[in-house]
Amino acid sequence: MAADGWRGRFVRRSIPPRFGVGRAGRALSYQAFVPDPIADIELSLSGETAGLVAAAGVEVRDLNESPPDLVVLEALATQLLRTEALASSAIEGLQLSHRRLVRAAALPGYDAMAQEVLGNVRAMERAIDLGRQPTRFAVADLQAIHSELAQGTRLARWAGQIRDEPGWIGGATPADARYVPPPEDHLDELLEDLVTFVNERVDLPPVLQAAIAHAQFETIHPFPDGNGRVGRCLIHVILMRSGLAPRYVPPVSLVLAAHRERYIDGLTTFQRGNLDAWGAFFAEATRLSALRAEAFAESVASLQQHWREQIKARSDAAVWTLIDHLPAHPILDAQTAKQLSGKSFQTASTALGALERADILVRRDNRKRGRSWEAPQLIDLVRELEIDLVASSTGSVPQVPRLRSND
Q: Which phi and psi angles does 273 have, rounded to 5°?
């Protein structure tokens, strides 16, 4: 059934027996939304939105072309990735501090929620790897990203599996859901259309291509769970594949998380055919996140320089190497310090002691997990990035139309 004002159509289906029946013993029916394909989508943006898309592309490119000596490349990439994973997970209700995530990464084995967010980090790392590959992006690659997300978490039973039954958002069944995505028998053609768009629509600005692909993926909702996080990983794939972000993808999810309701409204306006409003919202979120990521890189570099001025050591001392690596490893133990410095265990331990005496590291003694060292100033910088990005985006990200539940 065609849907007036929607970029797609509704199809009527009945609830399968496993979901129960109505009070009168009759099977309940519902309407699922099947979006129009996007591989050949024609776009006509307003001048304002086109300007926002162009500005976002400039800022992402500037972030990636910043001088390499701003900060160790691995360190900046790692911190931005963790920040992105935290924000993307927060949109799904998984609230976690950066300190807690870093502790779980450095000292694994005890925190189930942190492990789920770390799964999101792995999924984004896989997305970045796929974005750097010259081969054609495929549906199997989306499944690989989902498998990384699900590994070792409550999602493990669905790892990489396209759903073979109805999906829905909100409500106890599809009949009372807020949104019902396409039925399972439409998923293959819609996903093939999506990856065709990713591979072939290089005529579009990368930021706009990422915006449309992300919104279409969320509309399709092909997995039983984890769709939001996989869809935000898809942003990384496209910005990397396009060459716009060969080193760093800014933490766009941090802005989206700060405006969660507007983000959801934006996805709905996309489904309603208002690509201009969605494109403007996504582009400004991307621009702001790129600007703040570059400022964060400069703050980290400044902090490292301050540390070097505090330390009195030979130029070949392990302490210098650890200062280089601390942004990527703000919590570490002696074994990790040994690996990072390439020195003996004793030399690495001595370097940790020197950093502790200079108030760069704080020692933590844990009966179960042993001794570790933490760089609180670095963790505070990441927290300041999150606060600053949320504050700076308030009022800056374009409004999208609010849709009533009966629209």
A: 95, 0
